[in-house]
């Protein structure tokens, strides 16, 4: 369904088993003529029944023992703190309970992955873990000591992040040894994909983020409700990357749900294709019902396949600006504005800009290496439509000043060559590894002994 990067950890978030305890001595009678509540339900569950114990399993899921390994309440608290801090939004009590339940499932999966790697004599050295930890600190513009202080200040700990790194590295290495080695892609498959790519030249390509939650007919309502809560948190300012890492069941969870640059047919779902085609950069849509679960899509950016993006042009600009005195009378500032507008009309290209600007009391700022996409979105197309020596319409106000941008040069980007043979082969391999990895982890869950405290 989605393209993945097999070089990153596949962090899956599936349902964990629960163990009921403390049955009551008596219970209300249950219908003996029960039928499946949902069409196709092979479990033959009754429609009417009474719970014998507390129906909320989250109440007693504080910790877990996974094949003998204890996940403590502290482990859970510290990992939850990482997610809450990354979400950058307030998490209410009800949402917090759901987050804790999900994070516990993540910790269980992480433990199963580490245990499976150890069973294959795969060892991750402390030096490897520390190296990755140091790199993460640098990516967050922090020294080692600053990183540790920061983690402690939010209620987490270096040990918690390093445990997550351990799980990622162990699972990555295990997949290479047990899964990737057996994945084969033929040259014919790659050549066929290259031909389709060339045929689609000029069509749109999308960089999407996705959060995928799987469901069964029995769990569909609960999963949909969970997905809607996630969307609500994201609309309130939550970090898509953070929520994807903790909640998405796709292997791209490890990279914050980023599918990379794809063409819509690669989604392999007509519903997702239709939705994504109408989205604009920065837009969030979901939950979207698809076979097997629900998807939440976030459009990061879009471009045209094998076509140079004009927004990648390198521009040479002059910004000509005049400031106003907010305390001055309105007619004074109006006269100053009219003088500015008359002055820029007299400019004949970039050669005369500085001299005329100086004569009308305006300032000039030069920038010879600015990419068009770095401009505010409402200015990008205006500037790209200019010829050398032309200016944008004046914009601004008395408080911030009025300015124009004059185009003095433009270097257009080269046409994209597109992915080569090896890159396309890697994409196909990654997709197949993703599917095999999901089956592998599902088997690990099915064979695990898990006890909740």
What does this protein look like?
The chain is α+β, with helices and mostly antiparallel strands. It has helices at 73-87, 93-119, 126-139, 144-153, 158-178, 187-199, 220-235, 240-247, 270-277, 330-345, 353-359, 377-384, 421-447, and strands at residues 64-66, 69-71, 204-214, 258-262, 284-290, 293-304, 314-322, 363-371, 395-397, 401-411, 450-452. Mean pLDDT is 76; it is low at 1-41.
What's this entry about, in short?
The chain is of the alpha+beta class and 453 residues long. It has helices at residues 73-87, 93-119, 126-139, 144-153, 158-178, 187-199, 220-235, 240-247, 270-277, 330-345, 353-359, 377-384, 421-447, and strands spanning 64-66, 69-71, 204-214, 258-262, 284-290, 293-304, 314-322, 363-371, 395-397, 401-411, 450-452.
């Amino acid at each position: 369904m989605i393209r993945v990067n097999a070089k990153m950890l596949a962090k899956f978030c599936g349902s964990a088993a629960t163990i009921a305890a403390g049955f009551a001595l008596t219970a209300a009678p249950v219908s003996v003529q029960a039928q499946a509540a949902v069409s196709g339900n092979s479990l033959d569950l009754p429609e009417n029944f009474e719970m014998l114990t507390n129906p909320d399993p989250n109440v007693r899921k504080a910790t877990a023992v996974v094949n003998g390994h204890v996940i403590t309440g502290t482990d859970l608290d510290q990992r939850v703190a990482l997610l809450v801090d990354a979400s950058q939004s307030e998490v209410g009590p009800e949402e917090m309970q759901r987050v804790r339940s999900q994070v516990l499932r993540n910790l269980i999966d992480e433990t199963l992955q580490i245990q499976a790697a150890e069973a294959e004599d795969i060892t991750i050295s402390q030096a490897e873990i520390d190296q990755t930890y140091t790199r993460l600190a640098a990516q967050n513009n922090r020294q080692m000591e600053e990183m540790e202080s920061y983690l402690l200040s939010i209620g987490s700990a270096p040990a918690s992040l390093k445990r997550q790194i351990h799980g990622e590295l162990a699972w990555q290495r295990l997949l290479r040894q047990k899964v990737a080695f057996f994945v084969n892609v033929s040259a014919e498959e790659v050549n066929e994909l290259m031909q389709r790519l060339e045929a689609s030249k000029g069509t749109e390509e999308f960089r999407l983020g996705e959060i995928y939650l799987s469901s069964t007919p029995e769990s569909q309502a609960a999963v949909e409700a969970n997905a809607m809560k996630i969307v609500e948190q994201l609309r309130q300012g939550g970090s898509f990357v953070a929520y994807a890492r903790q909640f998405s069941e796709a292997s791209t969870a490890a990279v914050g749900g980023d599918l990379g640059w794809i063409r819509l047919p690669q989604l392999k779902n007509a519903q997702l294709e239709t939705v994504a085609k109408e989205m604009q950069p920065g837009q969030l849509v979901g939950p979207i019902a698809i076979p097997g679960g629900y998807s939440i899509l976030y459009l990061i950016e879009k471009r045209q396949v094998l076509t140079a993006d004009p927004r990648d042009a390198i521009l040479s600009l002059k910004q000509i600006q005049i400031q106003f005195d907010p305390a001055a009378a309105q007619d004074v500032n109006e006269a100053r504005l009219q003088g500015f507008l008359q002055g820029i009309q007299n400019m004949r290209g970039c050669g005369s800009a500085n001299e005329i600007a100086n004569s009308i009391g305006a300032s000039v700022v030069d920038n010879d290496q600015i990419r068009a996409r770095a401009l505010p979105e409402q200015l990008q197309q205006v500037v790209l439509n200019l010829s050398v020596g032309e200016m944008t319409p004046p914009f601004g106000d008395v408080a911030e000043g009025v300015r124009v941008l004059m185009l003095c040069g433009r270097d257009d980007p080269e046409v994209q060559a597109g992915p080569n043979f090896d890159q396309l082969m890697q994409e196909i391999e990654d997709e197949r590894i993703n599917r095999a990895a999901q089956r592998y982890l599902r088997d690990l869950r099915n064979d695990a002994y898990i006890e909740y405290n």
